[in-house]
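Chapter summary example.
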Amino acid sequence: MSLTLLVGIGVIISIIFHFIGVYAGAKKIVWIVIILTWAAVISVATSEVKPKAYSDIKEMQGKYKDTDRLIKEAMPKVSLYELIKIKNSYLKHENKK
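The structure predicted for these 97 residues follows.
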């Protein structure tokens, strides 16, 4: 899943929640919740992974060119979103075998 698709889904869900807030008469509360939700999701997606993930990355390294390119771009601090992209690339090649 690309980042553009995920952001697009988030925007659509935010618009739906906005109209629910308008219908329920709670626009301010709904927008506060939407803003806090976006902040939390962005914070989690950009946070650095735990040390265990770096050992998993080392195991994946050197097997496939696409995966190695993603690993090289992500290092030295790998975010959760980057780790998901690396694992998806690795699993895509592993499933072809």
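To summarize the output: The chain has a mean pLDDT of 86.
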